[in-house]
Amino acid sequence: MTTSTFPASLHGKTLRWTFKDGPTKGMKFEHIFEKDGKVTWRSAGPDAKDHHDSASAAVKVSDDVHVVSYLSKESGYTLTVALNLKTGTATGFASNGKDWVQQSGSFEVLGAKG
């Protein structure tokens, strides 16, 4: 598995995003981006379970745009999302061995870990 560090602008940040279409339409997910390149994600609700995925990467495309990608060990899906930090918009692609879907939505930065 490959892991790269995230751009400093994402280190320790928690982002909550919601897609307005696709199989996760309307669901909120929180993602924490660690300095070492690992991502922890969970649904944003009570009794949410953390999912730790180490096969991940992110690149800073411009001051306002980052692309994040990770493989979920549990579902077998890879999620790749372009995040526009200026507008709060997210456009992503989820795929596994047989399904592919494009999703769009929005996100907010909840803060950084202490």
SSE order: EEEEEEEEE
User: Can you summarize the main beta sheet?
Assistant: 9 strands, antiparallel
Q: Tell me the strand percentage band.
A: over 45%
Assign the CATH topology. Answer: Lipocalin
| Average pLDDT taken over every residue | 85
Choose one word for the global shape.
globular
* Unreliable parts: none
**Helical percentage:** under 10%
CATH H-level homologous superfamily name:
Calycin beta-barrel core domain
- The structure class reads mainly beta
Number of helices: 0
Distance between the termini: 28 Å
Domain tally:
1
Main traits of this protein?
114 residues; mainly beta; Lipocalin; nine-stranded antiparallel sheet; globular
Protein model, in words:
With 114 residues, the chain is mostly beta strands. It has one domain (8-112): Calycin beta-barrel core domain (Lipocalin, Beta Barrel). The chain contains no helices and 9 strands. It has a 9-stranded antiparallel sheet, with no helix packed on it. Strand 6 and strand 7 (78-84) form a beta hairpin. The mean pLDDT is 85.
In a few lines, what is going on in this structure?
By secondary structure, this protein is mostly beta strands. The protein has no helices and 9 strands. The chain has a single domain (8-112), classed as Lipocalin, CATH 2.40.128.
